[in-house]
Amino acid sequence: MNYLLRTSLLFLLSGIFILSTSSSMIQAEDLLPGSRPVIEARNYKSLQAAIDALPEEGGLVQLPPGKFEIIEPLRLTRGEVTIQGVGAASWIHNTNQEGKPAFVIERADKKKVPSKERLWRVMLSNFRITGTEKSGHGIEANWIQELFLQGVTVSEHGGDGLHLYFCEEDARISDCLITYNKQNGIFGEGLHDTVVSANHFEENQDALRFIDGYNLCMTGNNIDDHLRHGVIVENTYGSVISGNMIEECMQGTGVILDRDCYGITVSSNVIAHNGIGVDLKDAHGCAVSANTFTVNLEDGLKIGPDSGRITVTGNSFGNDYQGDGQYRRRKNDLKTGGIVLEGTSNNVISGNQFSAKSAKAITVSGEENRQNLISNNLFTAIESEHAKSSESLLENNLSTDGEKPLE
To answer: Which residue has the higher pLDDT, 111 or 201?
Structure first.
């Protein structure tokens, strides 16, 4: 019996050895062609060393959980790269006091080069990056094509949370938390075909400033409690701002279109508790439709003298009325700004509901308010000055007494 037991054990151990050796040979000789090793940042002395370990053709850097303090910017100078963490537990904190950013993505020579020679396809995902009042931007990207940020927390920087410069091709920013930055949550200059979706912005100076670009698709974001403005779009065309919650920009404006904007749709947003809801400073051929304007203290929608050919339809301008003579916050929220036409022409204002006792539905100011089509609107417990628009077609507007506000 002892002999048989010893023999069996010998055969078993031999089999294990053969299988182990075979497995090692497979790993050594039959790796997936084209695969590259994952850079585990925990195996390096610094995050920068881990990033520098990437091969020229790119790869993946995996951030471990932990808090990692930096005093100089992390720099990525390669494309085809993903840097990902394990969520908020992977925390990079910039302690710099000289206005330097936390993370910079650009070519090593910093040159503007033709599109094919730029860095392509960089993804940052699932980590937290913070700064101080004296540090610079959170993440700065220059001339990066197909930049993708997802699930990144960018907070408390002295500059912009995200500062994107001529990332022309298909930038995507989704599911990020962008909060408490001293300047813009996102600043984008020269961006094309950009998606900003399902992010949360809180208490930045402005949430988003998008200038000198086109084809912005901004949908499904929550923009809350900003110190100045919500969304600023300048010198941009062919864009949509839709399905967002934009509230509590009490010292500023929810949405601003300025400097030769055209062909932009602002639709299906809730725009509440701002100074001005939407201000069209210099915009043409735009649509403002199906938005809910609630308790914007100055104006709901303002169309300035440098704007025209605007279609405004299907919007609700209301206060905190709940039906049956009841109001949510009573006197604090009874007022809601309506539409202000300031020296503007060739606009359509149709099918809107206005209801707030202490404001005017449509205010006409300045000169040259003419050739406007104002029809089929309902004015509930509110006055309107739309008849002051000269050379205009005014018809089928209905005014009713509505409910009286509570004392």
So the answer is: 201
